[in-house]
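Our preliminary data section would be incomplete without showing what the modeling component actually yields. Below, a chain of 161 amino acids is followed by its predicted structure, encoded as tokens that our downstream tools consume directly.
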Amino acid sequence: MTSPVPPLARTTILALSFAAMVLLGALLRQTGETIGGMLDLTLNGASARALLARLSPWQRDIHAHATLIYDGLYPLAYGAFFAGLAMRLGGGSARWVAWVMLAGMVSDYAENIIQLLALSGRADWLDAKSVLTPLKFALTGLAILATLVIAGRAGLRALRR
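Predicted structure:
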């Protein structure tokens, strides 16, 4: 008897998460271009504070809404897509990719909370970005790279048949 496909690895979930990832990524990019930058791409507190100082109250408000809505959903979309694809193509041995992606998503959400606190003027914990942002990029990058390797191997196996 074959094992059932994990929920994240189902075709419908992969298609929906891919579409959401592309759409949300485009919305985040457009928002950043419109307001003059996004805190998500700053790697430390000093550069985040410099960007924050350049933003008008209107731009801060737009940034906060984009962080809350678009970047609130974006980790779910990219996490579901890459973890699901890895499990679909790599089987049970690729579950570690999902755990690495989950850790990257948690660091992304922690970064979002810190940014929302700064954008609202409630707290300045932006120095934590020196750890959280590189950690987010490292963990999600590792999971994405692993997924691409798994996909490449699956493609080679399919070509050999």
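Residues 8-160 form one domain. The chain has a mean pLDDT of 95. Preliminary results of this kind motivate Aim 1 of the renewal.
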